[in-house]
């Protein structure tokens, strides 16, 4: 069964903004305005929902957030939905979303990462609709480095489009831009060199599969449930196997190791041809690094494991399309990821 790709966005289309998890505090509203103007500069109309309050850890009660997300994803006049950012407890939406209605609706692009993995990855797995991991609205004003693209480029791409992203081999080692002080910042601070790293041994990697993945701390909580049945997805949509990716948002190496062990035991990686691991600033422990944590938990899979990929919480951000056909190439001198929207 083919993956369902939403129609490419064209000037005049509408983009919905809502906060399925955390909203935007008053001090950061100017950054939100800058991000909205960035989307509007592409010729789109931005429609902002009611669930945007940033005074607590969620923008509104779960029922309200679920209803607003459902409304935006099933409104034929909304062509893409992008949150300001993630948060902590989007898991409370899963039982409230009408998955049959989402499956029957015309596909709409859903864009996000971090806590939004909790919703986006199940959306692709349960409905076969492609979603975009790797950017949030508040990140959108940043211009992608040479060799990479923005989510705005992905959602405007035609069916069958193929694009290759090449890592810039530089990233931000630590810190972040204070949006309250610099709401109009548009340039990444890529101050540290760094390449992709093969964790499971030496040799070149050249592997294909359908992309599926997300944030470890979020997906670990739904592994083994109907919301994260990657085996069923592979049987239906990807008999060739999956190219899986995971990234650690902030938990230390012990927690990440436990979570990845649990996800493996729950069958999340059973169809994996390879695993990409996002670069992280999450802490090591005295006896276990983040790299060692991944290798301890996922080494038994016996597939290539490539770490320090730009698909996580460390700038810059490399968009990955859940459901896209992909090929990863990694050698001692060169790395690239090609995605095809078919």
Major sheet strand order: 6-16-15-10-11-12-13-9
**Total number of β-strand segments?**
16
Distance between the termini: 11 Å
Q: Largest sheet, if any?
A: 8 strands, mixed
Mean pLDDT: 97
**Beta-strand residue fraction:** 15-25%
Helical content (DSSP H or I, runs of 4+): 10-25%
Secondary-structure element order, as H and E?
Answer: EHEHEHEHEHEEEEEHHEHEHEEEE
How would you describe this structure to a colleague?
It is a single chain. The chain is of the alpha/beta class and 342 residues long. Helix content is 24%, strand content 21%. An eight-stranded mixed β-sheet has the order 6-16-15-10-11-12-13-9. A hairpin with a 4-residue loop joins strand 15 (325-330) and strand 16 (335-340). Helix 8 (253-265) packs parallel to helix 9 (290-298). The longest helix is centred in the N-terminal third of the chain and has 13 residues, at 62-74. The termini are close together. The model has no long low-confidence stretch (mean pLDDT 97).
